[in-house]
Amino acid sequence: MALEKPYPIFLSLLLALLLHSVVAQPSKNNIISLGTSLTAVENGSFWPSPSGDFAFGFRKIEKEDGFLLAIWFNKIPDKTIVWSAVLETTGDALVAPNGSKVELKSDGLFQLVDPEGDQIWIASPSRNGTDHAAMLDTGNFVLVGHESQNLWQSFDHPSDTILPGQVLHSPAQLVSRYSQNNFSRGKFLLRLQDDGNLVLWTTHYPMTLANIPYWDSHVFGDGFSLVFNQTGSIFVQSSNKSMVASISSNAPSTQDFYQRAIIDYDGVFKRYTYPKGHSSSAWSVSHNIPEDICNKIVEYTGSGACGFNSYCIFDDGMKSCRCPDGYSFVDPNDVKKGCKQNFVPQSCDETSSEAHHFNFSEMQYTHFPSSYYDYFYQVSEDWCKQVCLDDCHCAVAVFRAGECWKENLPLKNGLIDTPFGGKAFFKIRKVDSSALDPENVHVKNHISKLIVIGSTFLGSSVFLNLLLLVARSKLVVYWSGHNNQEDPKTSPSRPRMNLRSFTYDELVEGTNGFTEELGRGAFSTVYKGVLPDIPGNLVAVKKLKMVNEIDKEFEAEVSAIGQTHHRNLVKLLGFCNEGEHKLLVYEFMSKGTLASFVFEDQKPSWHQRVQVAIGTAKGLLYLHEECNIQIIHCDIKPQNVLLDDSYIAKISDFGLAKLLKIDQTMTTTAIRGTKGYVADEWFKNKPITVKVDVYSFGVLLLELICCRKNFDMNIEDEHKMILIDWAYDCFHYRRLDLLVEDDDEAQIDMKKVEEYVMIGIWCIQDDPSARPTMKQVVQMLEGFMDVPNPPDLPSFTNQW
């Protein structure tokens, strides 16, 4: 985004204000006097602007028995709507029944009433001093006072559109409609925030809460405004009237073209133009933000730019959503509802083997960011397809240059992305498969279950069991039509996660002599590097210092990370072990540490913090219970949680991890970790279990909730210095609002705030047995398990 010098814009703005002062004054032929009204009827009357360019009145909604109270371009054949009244409670467009009336009463009250006379919308609760109303040639409808001042205007209450001459002062927002002809609230926002930043958001549809930002102006300050001036430029200006960010410029003249800018139903902020005096013409798009929305939206919760199980294509300024082979739209008239499978999915019944009933439909350059549940690398394309075929949960295998992602339904964030360079293999049932009929699947499974039950009753006879087993196999083979199918391929074993061995000279060159430092700790320093043959090129190179037992530390970290893979763990790409030179090469995390994300001035959203908490918990759950060798991290803190491009949390730094053998549950070792995050058992020479990580996570969770460090001596109130004590006091006295008092989004979600504080308090119990497991923590964070009321902080009761 190019920023322009402020001086020319001053002249433009001055000219715009002069023009606005001329055209914004109501003339006698467009004055709407007190006591005037309009009624919602087919082909009813309206109030035009002096030139007739705009009109205010009722517009019939297609295929519905209702009317919008709206403003529209009146000289254009399709009467394009630029404003409509909305319901204050939901933000949806207000649909008035036939016979409703909008009236400017004799006492100055401007309201909309239904056919029975009950008020359903009001422009302003104040009726004092209203002299008349007017529809202006700017597209602004105003209530005017006795001293010619605007008491209310539609420009201050926009729906999804802004017009030349309109200024939005922070905080303000535009809300997209649901579809082209459905004026209900959609799932996208253009918000000029309190901090001055102009941001495009998806929403937690059908709720109005912002979900994921996918474009912003990168400008911050107090008193900012979004201006669409009469020369056709759209920009953000500061309180001193200087332009700080150009959003759209080089537009044709507003004298010759009608113009509007809209947060469209597809999520793209577009500036449209229409030549005046050309009734046979059409609106054309002159500017798009973002340029390719399909590549911009990656939602953790939600379907992405299109609906679930569909993929997005952006072509010639327009977004379209499509279904892959084997899928069709749930509702062809509403593509936002996504796609469904046109076949019976693969059964996970352990008594059946259906892999041979499926094959793949290939799509180039297609993928579903952040939708995968398993990942492999250094594998072949055939291996990737086979491992998906043998997994009943796998719906799509995505392959690119030795990397393989397994993805299950519902698929989200789908798009065609040529730079990605990979391909997607959609698993679909073969056309001639007997299992296409859901009844066949039901009967076959039913027969299998009956045979298994019979086998159980006759279990005293080994011979009878063998006979039943053979009979069962024959019946299943017969029913599935196996005689006419190829034998399923043998499932490949999971590939060994081999790490690349780098030479020291390679890493010296890749880091430009270790010049750009990313961070440092007691035993290492991390540098940014560029390695051409690594996907994405950027890496983080961790250079370990020569200290006592450095070989053991090095071997522990390489061994730990080399045997793990999870979306919430930082991936180890390779290592260097040349004498005193011991280095680890990791994937590069562009958003840095969780500490810098949470503790800096710009507070992350409540939703982002919730997702980071869940992601970190899932990473720990994997280390504790799901990988081949149980791992205790021993140093969970915000500095050891990194964030990728999509703000997905990934646990890093296994250098202090203590590996446990399969048959072990605890170990004793020297105190490790960081002050403030260390569990009590470290200091009491007690056996160390995975519960030390649970304690550290509890402290981190409270930090995420409050966006502050666990200890802050700069806080004047000494009762608030130690976060875990203050959080418990706030919970005990039912004043959790104090923990998030400056966070509007969190205060709207106080039930979850309370649950998360309770989870944090459970995690930091003194007695390790009183703390939950990370599996229980994940279930509580995601709402699949109730959170019990925690005891006082010193707890010695085994609840878990």
UniProtKB/TrEMBL annotation:
<keyword id="KW-0067">ATP-binding</keyword>
<keyword id="KW-0418">Kinase</keyword>
<dbReference type="InterPro" id="IPR024171">
    <property type="entry name" value="SRK-like_kinase"/>
</dbReference>
<keyword id="KW-1015">Disulfide bond</keyword>
<keyword id="KW-0675">Receptor</keyword>
<keyword id="KW-1133">Transmembrane helix</keyword>
<keyword id="KW-0472">Membrane</keyword>
<dbReference type="InterPro" id="IPR036426">
    <property type="entry name" value="Bulb-type_lectin_dom_sf"/>
</dbReference>
<comment type="similarity">
    <text>Belongs to the protein kinase superfamily. Ser/Thr protein kinase family.</text>
</comment>
<dbReference type="InterPro" id="IPR011009">
    <property type="entry name" value="Kinase-like_dom_sf"/>
</dbReference>
<feature type="domain" description="Bulb-type lectin">
    <location>
        <begin position="32"/>
        <end position="156"/>
    </location>
</feature>
<feature type="binding site">
    <location>
        <position position="543"/>
    </location>
    <ligand>
        <name>ATP</name>
    </ligand>
</feature>
<dbReference type="Pfam" id="PF01453">
    <property type="entry name" value="B_lectin"/>
</dbReference>
<dbReference type="GO" id="GO:0005524">
    <property type="term" value="F:ATP binding"/>
</dbReference>
<dbReference type="InterPro" id="IPR008271">
    <property type="entry name" value="Ser/Thr_kinase_AS"/>
</dbReference>
<dbReference type="GO" id="GO:0030246">
    <property type="term" value="F:carbohydrate binding"/>
</dbReference>
<keyword id="KW-0245">EGF-like domain</keyword>
<dbReference type="Pfam" id="PF00069">
    <property type="entry name" value="Pkinase"/>
</dbReference>
<keyword id="KW-0547">Nucleotide-binding</keyword>
<dbReference type="GO" id="GO:0016020">
    <property type="term" value="C:membrane"/>
</dbReference>
<dbReference type="InterPro" id="IPR000719">
    <property type="entry name" value="Prot_kinase_dom"/>
</dbReference>
<keyword id="KW-0732">Signal</keyword>
<feature type="signal peptide">
    <location>
        <begin position="1"/>
        <end position="24"/>
    </location>
</feature>
<dbReference type="GO" id="GO:0004674">
    <property type="term" value="F:protein serine/threonine kinase activity"/>
</dbReference>
<keyword id="KW-0325">Glycoprotein</keyword>
<keyword id="KW-0723">Serine/threonine-protein kinase</keyword>
<dbReference type="InterPro" id="IPR017441">
    <property type="entry name" value="Protein_kinase_ATP_BS"/>
</dbReference>
<keyword id="KW-0808">Transferase</keyword>
<keyword id="KW-0812">Transmembrane</keyword>
<keyword id="KW-0430">Lectin</keyword>
<dbReference type="InterPro" id="IPR001480">
    <property type="entry name" value="Bulb-type_lectin_dom"/>
</dbReference>
<protein>
    <recommendedName>
        <fullName>Receptor-like serine/threonine-protein kinase</fullName>
        <ecNumber>2.7.11.1</ecNumber>
    </recommendedName>
</protein>
<dbReference type="InterPro" id="IPR051343">
    <property type="entry name" value="G-type_lectin_kinases/EP1-like"/>
</dbReference>
<feature type="domain" description="Protein kinase">
    <location>
        <begin position="512"/>
        <end position="785"/>
    </location>
</feature>
